[in-house]
Fold:
Amino acid sequence: MTIFEPKTLFGTVAAIPAKAEAHRALIAAALADRPTLVRNLSNLSNDIRATLEALCALGASFETKGDTILMNPIRDVPQTATVDCGESGSTLRFLVPVISAIVKGNSTVHVTGGGRLPERPMEDLLRVLRAHGAVIDGDRVPFSITGELAAGTYELPGNVSSQYVTGLMFALPLLHGDSEIRLTTPLESTGYVEMTKRTLSMFGVQAEGVVKGDQVYRSPCEITVGGDWSNAAMWLAAGALGGPVTVTGLDLESAQGDKAILDILRRFGATVEVHQNDVTVSGGRLKAIELDMRDIPDLLPVLSIVAAAAEGETRFVNAGRLRLKESDRLATVAALLTALGGKVEDGPDWLAVKGGSRLRGGCCEVANDHRLVMAAVLASAISETSVEFEGFQAINKSYPTFMEDYRKLEK
Structure:
């Protein structure tokens, strides 16, 4: 059992490397024409380790020195390989199209994963890959991939996972012939697709509109991963509940959609100050708002705690995809807040939190979900008694140095 006593958090922490950018940088580097030095990759999370190990299983290799990784690209895919995606949805959805594009002849790649990964949706992505020549013998991991992917028009929904689109953007430029990604529903989490475009551009690859085939990933020699807005949101939200809290090393020009946390905290009533790449948030009189989660689903767990402290009822809408994450985050967030004395309701694609007073504290469940761990820890800052839960280790999925940073801020 992990116990967090009620404490106001304040001080300064540095943003950790952005997981979403790191996935993309490493995959592009593994597909490049020569080695690439990827900077700012210290204290790797489980998800990034999963991507690194998966790329090595496909024939890449890497060397680590301090906070840099020298990625040596894939030259030949083994005739038989096993790619373990761990619990990382990004690793799985990005690499399945890439594997389908690079397997040749009689090669077979076995794809596995653990935790809730086998339950997370893949059907639409696998369907469109099969329609273009990939042979995939299952709809959920574990499955095997053979066959060779062909160019063409790839139609799939945009409201299930932007990771489908990113996976195709990595893969289609490698095919012989031109392709197109055609979305049958509006794209959600648009910032993540923009991030993919930027990464591909750094490697000289174009994947918008008509995607030209036979493109070559040309290494820029080195690339730097930016600070992680998704995980920084935890500390910035803590600032809104008391503070001040400063997070350094955040790029205001980043394509990461979760930098929206700044405007959201301002709307709640917190004070937000920006100085170059440093952001400071301090508390104010917080008032309820309505939030559209279509492009920022990962922010809901920590924002639900801010909502619990805000006067009135905060509504999170267009949040249906949260039911398909590491846990059913609408249900698990509702259960967590209820267990701690909060007032909350959830519907098919919404969550409503009635706030304005301190939480009671007590025991809660984090559902083996790293975002729920952050929410539980943040809840202790506005609780009358300690917050207790089992499964703290889930934080290693994205933030293995979480406790080091927490201790810098606990007073």
Observations:
- The radius of gyration is 21 Å.
